[in-house]
Design brief:
Blueprint (H helix, E strand, L loop, with lengths): L7 E2 L1 H9 L3 E13 L2 E11 L6 E4 L10 E4 H10 L14 E4 L19
Parallel strand pairs: 1-4
Antiparallel strand pairs: 2-3, 2-6, 3-4, 3-5
């Protein structure tokens, strides 16, 4: 299936691309609106090469090829944080795009004692 759809990537594949220097681009597909204390809209995610020449859309799986969309800002920010983003900027208008650099999470975080130096 990879040969049939070279312009898509799964979540695991996205982590690998981030480790290679790709950027995450968040695209607003449906204008966001605030309902009570939450923001709702439709956003999709693309992996974009550093030179901008290659991009891949995030899908739920390669076998289904359904675009993964996010319906709340909370869900989108959680996803971006899981990908390693330290900050986020979310477009609220339809057609808006924002790029994020993230190292990806290809290795497990280090745990255990931490050496602290007193100044």
């Amino acid at each position: 299936m990879i040969e049939e759809a070279p312009n898509v990537v799964t979540e695991d594949g996205l982590r690998g691309l981030l480790a290679e220097g790709y950027l995450i681009e968040v695209v607003c597909k449906e204008r966001a609106e605030k309902r009570h204390n939450s923001w709702y809209g439709t956003w999709v995610v693309r992996a974009v090469a550093p030179d901008g020449r290659d991009d891949k859309m995030l899908v739920t799986s390669r076998s289904v090829l359904k675009l993964r969309d996010f319906r709340t800002i909370v869900g989108l920010v959680s996803f971006l944080a899981d990908m390693g983003c330290k900050t986020t900027s979310i477009p609220l208008e339809e057609g808006g795009r924002e790029r994020h650099a993230a190292p990806g999470r290809t290795v497990a975080p280090r745990t255990g004692p931490v050496l602290v130096k007193d100044d």
